[in-house]
Design goal:
By secondary structure, this protein is an alpha+beta fold. The chain folds into five domains: 1-41, no CATH class; 43-78; 90-108 and 328-404, conserved putative lor/sdh protein from methanococcus maripaludis s2 fold; 113-122 and 246-325, Efflux pump adaptor protein, beta barrel domain (Elongation Factor Tu (Ef-tu), domain 3); 133-236, Beta Barrel (OB fold (Dihydrolipoamide Acetyltransferase, E2P)), CATH 2.40.50. It has nine helices and 27 strands. The strands form seven sheets. Strands 7-16-19-18-17-20 form a six-stranded antiparallel barrel. Strands 4-24-23-22 form a four-stranded antiparallel β-sheet, with helices on one face. Strands 6-21-26-25 form a four-stranded antiparallel β-sheet, with no helix packed on it. Helix 4 (162-177) runs antiparallel to helix 5. The two termini are 38 Å apart.
Length: 510
Amino acid sequence: MNKTKIQIAVLVMGAALVGAATALWFVGAEPGSAGGSATGDEREILYWAAPMDPNYRRDEPGKSPMGMDLIPVYADEGGASGSDQPSIRINPTVINNIGIKTAPAKRGTLYRNIETVGFITPDADRFEHIHVRVEGWIEELVADTEGDRVKAGELLFRIYSPALVSAQDEYLQAMRSGQSALMRATATRLRALGMQDDQIEALKSRGEASELFDVHAPINGYVIDLGVRQGMFVQPGTTIMSLADLSTVWVDVDVFENQIDWVETGQTARMKLPFAPEREWTGEVDYVYPTIRAETRTARVRLAFDNPDLVLKPNMYANVAIDGAPRSDIVHVPSQAVIRTGGQERLILALGDGHFRPALVRTGLESEGRVEILGGLAEGEDIVVSSQFLIDSEASMDASLLRMIGDGPLPGQDHAGHDMEGMDHSEHDMKQDASTPTAPREQGGKQNGMEGMDHSGHDMGAMNQSTPEMEGMDHDAPSQPLPREQERDQGQMDHSAHDMEGMDHDGDAS
């Protein structure tokens, strides 16, 4: 009998040695490699982490603060190219299906391009208001329509003024008397009433006063405002009409107060009009007003544009772009790549081999579809510029990635600082609630020494509830007699399903 047992033991040991040798041979000979490297198929372990808290890491296997076995994190799961930071790995087919596109972060120059809107107005330096200096009546109105184009020296209207006729007579009398002082005094009065030097010379040559006084256009331009009609009585201070030279126009635009420091006099401005989107006018910043409009919190900026073909007309609506001072040697990325969530701004980094992870960044100037990165990204790093929101939503479900980018742990998930070894639960009341019935034994509700504990919310589908092996258990009499209540409970215990072969009941008090 003993000889047979020895032979069986030798055979078992031999089989174990053969199995170990076979396993070593398979590990050492990597399929498809000529050299059969011993480490070709081994996965590199970066660290060991707690199952319930990825921030709890160790360099070797062990237990977590909750008493659970640490699990390995491999290089091909924890990040790309051996990175020790968490990441998300996406199948190449999925990358193609959802249209993920990447682009590198570039270093270069961004112009502070300010886009705004404005309205064309006449150049106030080329604007003339026509008034009279005497009372009278408009006897003949030549420029009688707003928008009429006039040239310098053209007749605008004729006025009859008794005061002006009297002043002409006084000048002629002084001229006939030969008194030079009186002539100079009366000529000065005529100029004060609005007559020009050439008109006084014509009066002197003619020798006769004119009842109608002619008023001529002082500049080339258009009649912008017409305030009288023929036959109306006018007085000094009445604006007869307004003329504007539109060969140069102004454009008034509003700029947000956080952009006003970018604007300086002399900077280039570009303008487009809705009726001619293919054409672009180039002008410059003429003046930056020193105040902010309280109603809109914007600053007023005046631009000047040449208008040689007179296409630009007052009150036209214009789209304007001002080229502000540039920022050179900065890292910038496409604007659509930045994910803005409340007080955070982040990008999705493409780590290679289908791995992605979010990264917090600080942004600065944004211009022409590009945004400056002040921190959190280096030149040349690949970022996701399309479908990044899908990746970000997936990363938001990973607590370790959220902690990595600064979102902090989710409530109730951070156990890194808790020392749970040696916790004493002796004072805990684990008695069953009277309202919860105890599962009957026929339904698998074996107590196994846990009477009164409520496991109704636990998933025990994977637990092995096979008949416990109690072979070899020693039930010698306890050192102290049991109370009668416990004796009665033991008398009612059902051991029908227990394998009690080999149990020692020598000291049973029964």
